[in-house]
Amino acid sequence: MEGETSVLLGPRRIGKTSVVLTMLELFKSKGHYIYFNFSRFLGTKAISIADITPQKTSLKFITTSKAYKFSLKGVEVEVRKTSINEFVSDFSTLVRIFSENTKRGVIVFDEAQVLARLKNLDFRGLIQEIIDTYTNISLIFTGSMPGLLVNYLNPSPDRPNFMRGARTITLGRWSTEEGVGYLKSGFGRDDPRFPRIVESLGGIPGFLAYFGLTALNMGYPERDTLDSALTKTLEYAKEEWRRDIGAFLALYNSPIYTSILKILARSEVPLRGSEIYKLLEEKPKRIQHVYKYLKNLEKAGFVKSSGKRYWIEDPVLKLALL
């Protein structure tokens, strides 16, 4: 936590935000934090400096439509959002005052890949300034579209390279055993259906939490509601995946992406790019272009690959596509 840069990756609803918010709550006794959350802008083609407003902080905080203001040990700092120059100058001042008035500080950018869509400002310059100048300020970036975030933070060799000293942590899905343990703990009992439920929901903690609360609200364990709760959770989970696909397609507007995803969803085995190309009704001009589409889908977290073979890992995503 002393000046370290961390990148937390994993699909949506895997628990990144929960991990970060729990850490910030524990951190309050040691220093101060500022937390920005950009999840509501996923799929937005462009955001402005007005959208860079903290959602949580341990400091005294006032926000208006044109500015936000912090108070640290009686020192007030205002960040104006009325022009790029004012914003950059004020944000730099904020970080300097923040560093000078806290022993340790943390700044979090949740779903940070959205910053790549910022109009008229490359925010990486401010990020680089923080990393290079303020050794007591730790930065945390999270991203549910891992490749897109890494691309943004780790540009070509002639640009600042923020990832060089970063610690990258990937949150994985729960195994069947871990998911069953979670359900046992939550319900205070075991059930032979738990393994099937965990596997049906792809081991995603957020979906398992939703399932557990749904079952309890429907009367479990007094009433046998597990199957009904699973059906309701699958509908919710499919809708969440569809929203993620929609956010992706809003940025990458080509029907070929949808076609590739549906081909992979129907397949019971991993497929080579050449096999996918043959199955496409609307084909790109060259077979090599299929790999560009697959690469972007993998960066977005929809597709997995190994040995030039591609597949969809999540069972609910498959259901949503089909």
UniProtKB/TrEMBL annotation:
Gene3D superfamilies referenced in this protein's UniProt entry, alphabetically: 1.10.8.60, P-loop containing nucleotide triphosphate hydrolases, Winged helix-like DNA-binding domain superfamily/Winged helix DNA-binding domain
Source organism: Pyrococcus kukulkanii
Lineage per the UniProt record: Archaea, Methanobacteriati, Methanobacteriota, Thermococci, Thermococcales
Protein name, UniProt field: ATP-binding protein
Record field: transmembrane: none
InterPro entries: AAA_14 (IPR041682), P-loop_NTPase (IPR027417), WH-like_DNA-bd_sf (IPR036388), WH_DNA-bd_sf (IPR036390)
A Pfam entry, by short name: AAA_14
PANTHER family linked: ATPASE DOMAIN-CONTAINING PROTEIN (PTHR34301:SF8), DNA-BINDING PROTEIN-RELATED (PTHR34301)
Domain AAA stretches: 6-154
UniProt KW Nucleotide-binding keyword: yes
Sorted UniProt keywords: ATP-binding, Nucleotide-binding
GO molecular function annotation: ATP binding
